Amino acid sequence: MVKKIVPIFILALLTALCLPGGEAMPADGGAEIPAGEKYVALTFDDGPRRGTTERLLDGLKERGAKATFFLIGQQIEDNAALVARMAEEGHQIGNHTWSHQRLDGILPDEAAQEVARTEAALEALLGGGEYWLRPPYGQVAEGVELGVPMVKWCVDPRDWESRDAEKVTRAILDCVEPNSIILLHDIYSTSVDAALRVVDRLQEEGYWFVTVEELLWLNGVTPEAGRMYRTGKG
Fold first, then answer.
1. One of 45, 46, 186, 193 is an active-site residue; which one?
2. What's the distance, CA 60 to chain centroid?
3. Nearest to 132 by CA among 150, 114, 153
4. Which of 39, 40, 8, 34 is nearest to 19 (CA)?
């Protein structure tokens, strides 16, 4: 399902980049992605969670914004409907290990198993595909080869620490710029509030919210397995 949605959308985005004079190119789902605009990627870790993730999806849909969700494997089965909805609504779905295990302090085989179990759960629910990885805490030990692109971030409002929607919103807006990858956690109600406020504010400023995969393609970056990306430019 995801593999069918994303390439069509990316093709429209890439075509839009070649259009002169800021013309718009219709994208999959009826949206228009103008050339030469500002793009940013919202990413969410540690979900899914009933209530908060559902409210976030409602808000993103209302605003026409896409995001990338890095999921904890052991939470997928009990939230299968939410994960399926993410895919159906055009969000990118990624892997955040099975149990939020650090990948820089365990043996390579253990790290690979943490990733493989979540990948298997996603494939069972959504079908085959490439589920990019966000390592917990953004770290992977040297010598660990996991076979997919990895995603870090360049804007971290430390939402897990403050649990304050206003502080988180302000921290993001103070640091964001075109091609930023923003880190948030959809398990906190305050983070959902902040995310939707950020979308409202940045859309007013001409930003478009796309997935990480789309952000890289918009910048002409071909994602490589085993490489860590922290902005849309690589």
1. 45
2. 13
3. 150
4. 34
Question: In angstroms, what CA-CA distances link 85 with 14, 57, 77, 143, 188?
Answer: 25, 8, 13, 35, 19
Catalytic residue among 46, 96, 185, 186: 185
pTM: 0.86
* Domains of the chain, start order: 38-229 (3.20.20.370)
Please choose, from the candidates 150, 200, 9, the residue with its C-alpha nearest in 3D space to the C-alpha of residue 90.
9
Q: Model confidence over 65-105: pLDDT tens digits?
A: 999 999 999 999 999 999 999 999 999 999 999 999 999 98
The answer to whether residues 122 and 80 touch, using CB atoms and an 8 Å cutoff, is no
Q: Is 100 a catalytic residue?
A: no
Residue 120 in 3-state DSSP?
helix
Catalytic (active site) residue 78: no
Q: How far apart are CA 74 and CA 98, in angstroms?
A: 6
| 91 close to 211: Cβ distance less than 8 angstroms | yes
